[in-house]
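sorry for the late reply, my laptop died twice this morning and i had to redo everyting from scratch. anyway the thing you sent over, i finally got around to it. pasting the sequence first so we're on the same page, its 296 residues, then the predicted structure underneath. double check i copied it right bc i was rushing
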Amino acid sequence: MVRSSSRGEVSPGLWRREAGTVVRRAGALPERATASGAVVADFRIVPAPTEWTRHAHRLHELVWVRGGTLTSRVGDRVFTVFEGHGLWMPAGVVHAGRATEGARFHSAFFAPDRTPVAFGEPKAIAMTPLLVSLLTHLSRTDLAEAARLRAEAVVFDVIEPSEHQLALRLPGDPRIDAIAEALLDDPADGRSLEEWARGLGTSERTITRAFRRSTGLSFAQWRQMLRVHRALTLLSDGFDVMSVSERLGYAQPSSFIAAFRRVMDTTPGAFFGAVDAAPGDVRNSVSGGENAGLSA
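ok and here's the structure:
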């Protein structure tokens, strides 16, 4: 089922939809998913901003993108997937996703009973040039069974979690959920902690404690992490630093660059410069962790 959305609707825990977003239900698994071997890989171009509604697969899934970004909501976490990283989704885990226009969307499905690696929860995966090459090789439909099994064995040897698990944890606390949804809708919303407390009829202390308890971060740190997640998508889409800075509510580009550095341990320019220079057109790993590496 496919439908197009021209409205800027907000899905819980995801960014505001772009105009013209195509909303899809998860399609059927590739036909070869029931064939011999453990891994079935495929790719497609996403011609328009695309959102997949909540679904789960009977197979493990590894997704990665080139030339765009993917945002995935899994429970109380939002993952931002960009070149050089993939997202492992264990079989049976309910998730939703959204890919940017023009992204080359790759997916590989792993039969649980024939896959010796085990990641029990969604996990960022380091998409090294070797792993990408192997999965691209496995997307061929003319591989002999012996060749397929040899390639799969190497995949199982080299697939590893990324050192940097960049995920945004959502509060899931009714006292502050309105703040989280408002900032997902508009990351540039610059209301202070005092203004939020006054608007919600509560105290700054209550909001601060709620954010710490539910996300492990202060309000300021959480908003900073959210903005960097959004910045990765905008920068991948070709927006320059000044435009991204303005869209995210920073008074000056230098303030945005400083915030980006606190999360990613590098500047936007250095990060994307390293991306462009990486061999095999595969982005390098980045520093930063799940709700970590931040200062208030």
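The chain is about 35% helix and 20% strand.
thats about all i looked at so far, will dig more tmrw
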